[in-house]
Amino acid sequence: MLHGLANKRSVFLSILALLISAFPVSSRAPIPQARVLQEVRSHLEKPEGLPLDVRAQATALKRYYDSSTARTFWTESGRTDQLIEALEAVQLSGLTRTDRWVKRLRFMEQSLRAQDARFAALAELTFSAALLQIVSDLRLGKFQRYKKLLHPRTLARRVIENPALEALQDGFSLSEVLDAVQPSDIDYQAMKSRLGEYVALRRRGGWPLVRVGLQLKVGDSGRDVQDLRRRLAASGELALPLADGDKYDAALRNAVKLFQRRHGLATTGTVGRRTQLAMNVPVETRIRQLQVNLERWRWFALPQGGPRWIINTAARRIFVQQGQAEFREVRIVATHACQDAAAFDTALDGLTFYPEYRVSRDAAARYVLPLLKKNAGLLGESIKIEPQQALRAVPDVFRPDWIDWKNYKENDFPFDVTIEPGPANPLGAFKLSLGEIDNISIHGQPRKKLPFRQGLSCVALRKSENNLKVLLPGLTGDLPQYRNDDTANHAPIQVNLPRRPSVVFIYATVWLDAGGELVFGPDPLGKDAKLNRAL
Questions:
Q1: Where are the strands (E) in 354-403, listed by range?
Q2: String of b and e for 425-451 (b: at least 16 CB within 10 Å)?
Q3: Where does the pLDDT of residue 1 fall: very low under 50, low under 70, confident under 90, or very high at 90 and above?
Q4: Among 88, 96, 207, 282, which residue's Cβ finds the most Cβ atoms within 10 Å?
Q5: Model confidence over 373-417: pLDDT tens digits?
């Protein structure tokens, strides 16, 4: 199918080239703007005749060119070159690929010399479509290629008004438009800045390798230390004037610590195998890691100001941002299913003590069913199992120990599992719910010596109550707690929150730590490679 589309495009371009050649370059005055605009509107009345990539932008193009204030841009002298140069600069920076559009636009420039209004109108639409597509790629990401990675809530916001053409009409430059449409979050801007540094470093040949095996520390000297200094100077952890030399001194130790912090390693200041392997990761690999994570940040339309949580399941941390200057981080336990969940942004819905928890169907089949097959009595009284609607007509009284659970499998488990409120709740004393997201919530640290506590909670806080106060600094007074000897159930207690932070739920392998340093982390589920292939 793709081969057929490519052949059709080739035929279209060949015919267009022949038609253009029939109109020799003339010294006549430029085609009147009103005439070109009339032909543009005629093309948009029947967009099925336009090339596919132009037709994809037909709605936005029609919205602009049908307005009373519309004007043509690309029939003016120099404008086409400016757009081509701007798109080349975007690709050179590593932000997104534009080479296909650049090649196409250079070809379409010929139609503007043909002194034919209909060809000029087609070129006008092609240049505008190229701008709108690159603006969309920079602001929203190429989400059409990987919809399964996004939560329906995120996908629902994808169609937005695009002000790029209006901004040009108001006098903004192309570079200003392409900068302004990108996310302004500090996470995105920090990654964008580092990407520019690494792309420039790639053009200079990248960073040198270090030998793996010999452990280096303060006081050492020799060729390995010299290579280490040059490696860290190349990537910016060590000042360039200190690149030469073969002594492992205090300045080099501090540079090693900075490198280790930037790569999620223990900041020992000594260089062992793990640090050496991290140093030998090619700059091209780091560039792709940045590009993938920049793409992830384009999925969100986040409010500016106010408290915000970034739940990063790859890093297993919640980053708490209270305004522009205050950052804290909280370590979490995240299940495999939680890490693999689709990305979304929302807001905190509420805090509940003594929560009731509805176990997701997948988690119930994976963690509860094996225990039922072994001995239904292991679940305890706080775990309630009920048949789903299709089975409820069978028994008037349902008891788990009456069922032969060996007849059920993970893909065939038609039962609802609920953990009732009370001290035996395996998910801890409290639950933080995320707005309109049913299967993802944040819990206190699961209690020990209780059945299947792992796997049921999506995100669990370590040092639960202390970290709860970090997440919600506005909480005052004593928080409800279970007594160890308490065996009675409790009704859920809803806690009023003074402010409800916005929440980003993301699997990110590059992030800003609490000190504002950009960290390259591992990719435990291999999701970077999947997204990179889609891009």
A1: 357-359, 383-387
A2: bbbbbbbbbbeebeebbbbbbbeeeee
A3: very low
A4: 207
A5: 888 776 666 778 888 765 555 555 677 777 888 888 888 888 888
Q: Indicate the pLDDT class of residue 195, thresholds 50, 70 and 90.
A: very high
pLDDT at 4 over 50: no
Which tens digit of pLDDT belongs to each residue from 287-306? 999 999 999 999 987 766 78
Interval 317-336: pLDDT, tens: 999 987 666 788 999 988 88
Instruction: Give me the chain's average pLDDT, please.
Output: 83
Other Cβ atoms less than 10 A from the Cβ of 395: the count is 11
Tokens, residue 46? 């029947």
Distance CA 388, CA 391 (A): 6
The tokens for 189 are 């801007």
> Per-residue pLDDT tens for 428-448?
778 888 887 877 888 877 665
**Residue 421 · residue 491 · CB < 8 Å:** yes
CA–CA gap between residue 54 and residue 190 (Å, rounded):
33
Pairing relationship of beta strands 493-495 and 326-334 according to DSSP bridges: unpaired
DSSP-derived secondary structure for 201-240: HHHTT-PPP--SS--B-TT-BSHHHHHHHHHHHHHTSS-G
Q: How far apart are CA 319 and CA 311, in angstroms?
A: 7
**Do 463 and 371 touch, CB atoms closer than 8 A?**
no
Q: Which residues of 43-80 are buried (b: 16+ CB within 10 A; e: fewer)?
A: bbeebeebbeebbbbbebbbebbeeeebbbbbbeeebb
| Contact present, 93 and 79 (Cβ < 8 Å) | no
Alpha-carbon distance of 520 to 286, in angstroms, equals 8
Nearest to 80 by CA among 123, 38, 18: 123
Tell me the helix, strand and coil percentages in the chain, rounded to 5: 45, 15, 40
